[in-house]
Amino acid sequence: MNTPKTNEELQTLIDKENEVYQQLLLQYHSIDRKLNVRRSRMDKYRTQMDQNIIDEYRKSEKIDWEWVLGCSLNESTVRYKFAHEVIDKMAGIIYSGCHNGKTNQLVLIVSVKKGSSDEHLQKIKASLDFVMDYLLPDEDGWVHFSVSEITCGEHGVYYFLFKKDKSKIKISKYVHHSERYSWTFTNVMDALKYIREHLSNNY
Question: CB burial class (10 A; 0-12, 13-18, 19+) of residue 162?
Fold first, then answer.
């Protein structure tokens, strides 16, 4: 049977463990500093790569949309700003965030203002038709757009969903990450008109 250690003996053991702990901690800080230097260098190189791509686009005016719509946790600031710049030129589409681990593409949002004309809805449809060629579907075959609506998700989040070939179109309301309601449409314009009447925003 083990003899119980006295407090003095236990303190001696604690002191020894603490000595080793402090040595390891110094090593950790040293490694952490080195990792930060490497991480900073990678970020710098990544930013320069993205800037080179952007500079080429500005010269040729030919944009790689797969590159623009792709994203990652390591996305550089210049790439983020550039994506905003080009997407902001598209009628009715904005973006926020990234589908990390799913499609690794930007989260695109359909934004329809209250009282928008049918002509403007046609422009939004043209924007959707264009980006659909570059968007990846989820595991169930749906391409996702969020909907910018007047309650800002107060009572649930709305998604504008397409099958890649547009054979199926629906607007779904999700509450606590589960689909609660959905409305199906035969064409994009009817869906946009529904958003205008029921889910439009005022900004």
Answer: buried
Beta bridge partners of 161: 144, 170
Longest CA–CA separation in the chain, Å: 88
Helix (H, G, I), strand (E, B) or coil at 6: coil
Whether 190 and 181 have beta carbons less than 8 Å apart is answered as no
- Residue 182 pairs in a beta bridge with 172
pTM (two decimals)? 0.71
Tokens 């397409």 belong to: 162
Which are the contacts of 141, defined by CB distance < 8 A and separation ≥ 6?
163, 164
> 60-72, pLDDT tens digit by residue?
888 888 888 887 7
What's the one-letter identity of residue 111? S
Measure CA 81 to chain center: 14
Cα(54)–Cα(63) distance, integer angstroms: 8
- Sequence ranges of the domains in the chain: 7-62, 87-199
DSSP string, 57-90: HHHH----HHHHHB--TT--HHHHHHHHHHHTTS
* Token output for 33: 């500093």
The pLDDT tens digits of the residues spanning 162-178 come to 888 888 999 888 887 77
With CA atoms as reference, report the closest residue to 103 among 74, 150, 143, 62. Answer: 143
